[in-house]
Amino acid sequence: MAGREATDGDGLPDIPRLDPGAVAPIRVEGLRKRYGNVLALAGVDLTVEPGAFHCLVGPNGSGKTTLLRTLLGLVEPSAGEVSVPDARLGTAFQRPSHYDQLTVADNLDVFGALADADAAWAETVLARLGLDVVRDRIAGELSGGYSRKLDLALALQKAPAYLLLDEPLGELDDVTKLRLLEFLGAYRDAGHGVVISTHNLGQFASYVDHLTIVHDGAVLLDTPRESLDVPDGELQELYVERILSAASESDGEG
Ligand SMILES: Nc1ncnc2c1ncn2[C@@H]1O[C@H](COP(=O)(O)OP(=O)(O)OP(=O)(O)O)[C@@H](O)[C@H]1O
């Protein structure tokens, strides 16, 4: 992370810019994951480009979380190749990562020191996520939404080249959702990859650059957003229609 700064003119501290050209893509080939007799991933090929907002969307049980966790190295593939560049990946929200007994500011100091982050970046993250108002609160006493944003702030201390998040907006209030979405958009605009796993594509419609629909552990559609000739407001509907039509085809085969 270095060089020019994002100038989004929104009055918030700028996010230092990363040159996506200097980051390799994440590549997955023939990825299979079996849990006992459940085939969670049935041979997935996927490329995640740097600097893009990439949504992995699919219904419950389609394999999104398994795919995301495999990219993060948290799940061992049964077969196939996962090539993650020699770059920093970041994630949050799977389980709390903060120290409950420390304040927000002290948590940031600890994680910032581990990540060798500079103080200006910690302040930027604090302001961008709207955490500055709770900086002196004990982390264990924060509300659910602030607690989750704190974990995201801690993951961001190392300024990951790719930020991978599983249903990041679940259970957040509408204002918090909006601020988080704006942050994720700004982080992408500053050259970082953002990879979201969700079954609610509609919430991310105005941000998505690349869409991968996952169904029954396989990729049903993998396409740049620009090649889909539908307005943002119809993206969720397009996804649901694709799933319904794939489900009725597989019913027909059965
Ligand atoms: N640790 C596990 N042990 C056994 N089966 C698992 C495990 N994790 C996931 N599965 C199974 O693998 C399949 C894919 O699950 P996964 O959580 O990846 O789907 P998902 O698309 O993220 O679903 P959701 O939207 O409900 O979170 C499901 O059938 C699930 O029950």
CA radius of gyration: 19 Å
- N-to-C SSE series? EEEHEEHHHEHEEEH
- Major β-sheet profile: 6 strands, mixed
Shape: globular
Q: Which strands sit side by side, in order, in the main sheet? A: 5-6-7-3-8-9
Average pLDDT for all residues: 89
Terminal Cα span: 51 Å
Strand pairing plus helix content: what structural class?
Answer: alpha/beta
Query: Helicity range of the residues?
Result: 25-40%
Contiguous uncertain segments of 5+ residues = 1-7
Which cofactor or ligand species appear? adenosine-5'-triphosphate
Instruction: Count all strands and give the number.
Output: 9
> How many separate structural domains?
2
Mind telling me the CATH superfamily name of the largest domain? Answer: P-loop containing nucleotide triphosphate hydrolases
SS summary, helix count: 6
Oligomer: single chain
Specify the CATH class of the largest domain. Alpha Beta
Domain ABC transporter: 26-241
Keywords: ATP-binding, Nucleotide-binding, Transport
Organism: Haloglomus irregulare
Protein name: ABC transporter ATP-binding protein
